[in-house]
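Final report, results section. Input specification for complex C-07:
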Amino acid sequence: MSTLAFALLATLARAPHSGYDLAQRLKHDVAPFWHAAHSHIYPELTRLLEQHLVSVEHVAQDDRPDKKRYAITPAGRAALRGWLAAPTRPRVLRDELVLKAYAAWMGDRAAVVAQFREHERLHRERLAHYEAVAARMEQQYQHALTNWRSPTFASYATLRRGISFEREYVAWCRWLADQVEGQPADV
Amino acid sequence: MSTLAFALLATLARAPHSGYDLAQRLKHDVAPFWHAAHSHIYPELTRLLEQHLVSVEHVAQDDRPDKKRYAITPAGRAALRGWLAAPTRPRVLRDELVLKAYAAWMGDRAAVVAQFREHERLHRERLAHYEAVAARMEQQYQHALTNWRSPTFASYATLRRGISFEREYVAWCRWLADQVEGQPADV
DNA sequence: TAAGTCATGTAAAAAGTTACATGATTCT
DNA sequence: AGAATCATGTAACTTTTTACATGACTTA
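Structure output:
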């Protein structure tokens, strides 16, 4: 089973969702930890259905197109628990901007600075967004955040990862842009 | 052109390499910013050759198998500069462990703690390695590190990214493991 | 003698992205 | 009137990983 399958099961373990909802969740909800296109999700749901790890229910809607609501089955929950306990292979970080840093010495100074300033801005925005969500959670769900058995705590945990990741990224971009900008002119 | 093509060109811009060397570099050298399997690299080098962005030279060796030494061409350098100046789309972070954090509330407490402690250890090791390399560079190449036009500075910059990434990762793993471990027993 | 390094490739499978395709409703 | 949202799917393509394949030399 692919990691996407577990991403879907993990989301369905909290509440039933349609394929469309799942795509939205994996994209926007809390920190986006395993984004996938809908064209990837629909076939995967079909596979999960064949394996009886999820069930479907047709939901008629008047104002909007009908949808299929998928729910996790006991077998699906068992599969999720098995995956959770299994060892996880760390992923290598694959970031095109880091690669550009590796090649930056060849580039045009102003263009390099602009590139890193732009990403500093972008990640700063994401950081601000995550921080706002975290602040809201801390106010609203105080109790749940001290209970690791609650899905809310789990969401908060992924959010914290997003926050520290973005914070670190912003700092690195700024450091690099400052270095390139501040050093004496080319000889 | 794929990002891998630019990863290869960026490495060849520093010095000629064989396919084998490139695979090693992308894996081990400084922080691994764009790892690729050799089975991916060899065909890509052939494509670069067809586009005249790199050139080859056969190098006979007595003690080891012969190798092909690839070098970047002026056209290759131009392509690299173009790519450097082009906007970079930020990648979404795709980390299976973050996904497991999202699902952690369903798991076995001891298994979850063990999982995150294990990754804390693993990333702490990487961090220590990167920090050692950085310390060595700071001693050895003082001057080059204040000159953004030197490839050494660029290597140092990617290394700094690796260091702050790993440091952040370690802290998050520890925080999560502490939370799960320290909270009152299941109700 | 077994494992590890150096060296280059092909083939197949899996994972992920982009484009194609449709259609109703709601908001600007 | 046009864009955005909701909703589901298929097809094609690109990217990435894993397995297959070979072979010499070196080190434990």
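Chain A touches chain B through 75 residues (CB under 8 Å). Residues 18-20, 38-39, 42-43, 61, 63-68 of chain A lie near DNA strand D (CB under 10 Å from a C1'). This concludes the modelling results for the funded period.
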